[in-house]
Design a protein that fits this description.
Layout lengths: L30 H7 L2 H4 L2 H4 L3 E4 L9 E8 L11 H7 L6 E9 L4 E9 L4 H13 L28 E8 L5 E9 L11 H4 L7 H4 L2 H24 L17
Antiparallel strand pairs: 1-2, 2-3, 3-4, 4-6, 5-6
Length: 255
């Protein structure tokens, strides 16, 4: 199994870069590759997709470092109750094959963030259609289209519910059957009256409570970390001869 560190370098979309020496068995975004990619979650260790600790160098407000510690992993399941109703309708055309989720707390135990990985049943055309709609209609900015968090009793995320959501980030994969998202809030259980999408909460000069607390940075940083690890894991699974691997730190699988 793969033991992947936090991938450096930005990946703007979910397009896999095969590199000059790769010999792919299926074209990127093809139906065959979609079918193989959506099975990766079965074999990938939990700690590969949702590591116990995520180090976000320069991922906090003002370029500060951020560290997130995992407090719980939800059992893989369906999408019922995981999204606000309108978001559920937007995602429905792609189907919900499986939903994987984990919740993190920052190193100061001040903020909590749930990260989700939606494995869709869509074909390449379906994912491209969702991506075009998401971007073209600016759906990521709408406060009625927010993912819901997962609380874990006995942890700093025990009171993390819908009212506590402060910021969020949703990333629709361009060439793979995945949607990765993250939603963040305060660990003390306070309700947030005006949640703000991460794109605005991380903007220079933003003065809202979610922005000043770094909730947008939490959402974007963790969504990107999981997205990057997922992309690297799929690349290694589909093209093992082009990817170096090391022994995994954890071997528990998603079931």
């Amino acid at each position: 199994m793969l033991g992947l560190g936090l991938i450096g370098g930005a990946i703007a979309g979910a397009v896999i870069d095969h590199g000059p020496h790769a010999a792919p068995s299926a074209a990127p975004g093809s139906a065959a590759e979609f079918g193989r990619a959506r099975q990766v979650w079965h074999s990938a260790p939990v700690d590969t997709l949702f590591p116990r600790t995520v180090n976000g160098k320069g991922a906090g407000p003002g370029g500060s470092d951020r560290v997130w510690i995992r407090v719980g992993v939800a059992a893989p399941g369906g999408c019922a109750g995981a999204f606000d109703p309108l978001l559920d309708q937007v995602l429905a055309p792609t189907g919900c094959l499986r939903l994987l989720r984990a919740t993190y707390v920052d190193s100061t135990s001040s903020t909590v963030t749930t990260v989700g990985l939606l494995v869709t049943a869509a074909d390449p055309a379906g994912m491209r259609a969702l991506g075009r709609r998401w971007t073209g209609e600016h759906l990521g900015d709408r406060t009625d289209l927010i993912p819901r968090p997962v609380a874990f009793p006995g942890t700093p995320a025990a009171r993390f519910g819908a009212a506590q959501r402060g910021s969020w980030d949703v990333q629709v994969s361009a060439d793979l059957p995945f949607v990765v998202y993250a939603v963040s809030g305060f660990a003390d259980g306070r309700a947030v009256q005006s949640p703000q999408p991460a794109s605005l909460a991380t903007a220079a000069g933003a003065t809202t409570a979610p922005a000043q607390a770094g909730l947008g940075h939490d959402a974007t940083g963790l969504a990107k970390a999981v997205h990057d690890r997922l992309t690297a894991t799929v690349e290694a699974e589909l093209h093992p001869t082009a990817t170096a691997s090391t022994p995994a730190a954890g071997t528990e699988k998603h079931r």
